[in-house]
Design brief:
The protein is 46% helix and 20% strand. The chain is of the alpha+beta class and 271 residues long. It folds into two domains: 116 residues, no CATH class; 110 residues, Immunoglobulin-like, CATH 2.60.40.420. The strands form two sheets. Strands 3-2-1-5-8 form a five-stranded mixed sheet. Strand 6 and strand 7 form a beta hairpin. The longest helix has 35 residues.
Amino acid sequence: MSEHNSEHSSEHNELDLKPTPGQRATNLFKRKDVQRTAVFGIFWTAVFVVLGLYIYPKWMPEAMSTDMKAMEKIMVGFTLISAPIAGLVMGIATQAITNRHKGNTPPPDGPAIRTNGPVVVVWSVVSGIFCLIAVVWGIMEVNTMANAATSEAGTALHVQVTGSQWVWSFKYADQGIESDKLMLPLDRPVVFDVTSVDVNHSFWPVQLGVKVDANRLQTTVIHTVPNKLGRIDVKCAELCGLYHAYMETTGEVMTTTDFNNWVTTNGGHVA
């Protein structure tokens, strides 16, 4: 009995791997279910495009630096690149959910996708192109930000960032002051030297679009250029213990005059 079932299962699998008669590339798109799937796929692709262009940017934190603006651009771009693939997947799912078979007879077999050579080739090539574009674009953006940071390093404000359970502290060595708030001047490059005195943390000034680990006995460096006045939210993005969720503080991007006044008010000197 077991051998009979095994042989039957083997024959069934072999049959599944063979192209279904009439399921050639020229006939595949004449099927109503395939046409319905295509319509659903186009609909969902349009939905993701609208989300990427108009909705997602409104959900993102306010862009207050060149880096955050670049991150927003990448997120929107990647959403648009992936929209056709996500649309096709959602189209297939929608077709499967809405296509209810009626009657006592078994439902007809679906189109033979995995054994349809042209469909497999098109799917593989298009997916590969999308992935290649995403990778190349991401590398170019990262290199652009790195080059910008290097060219502006000479005029940068240096801030030593220290994480400890569960607070952030900021030391302005050139100005001779220390604070629990992150105060930055507008349009001046900033270099963050980040470290930790205990466990690993992750320094994340949200609106500035940069993030880096704060490691014990190590210093990691990130750069940015604040280009918009306003409040900054500083959070920890690495699980660091019981009160990790409360390891946050605030700051502000202010005019150069206001920043200098803040420095002198706190006993420092303008540098």
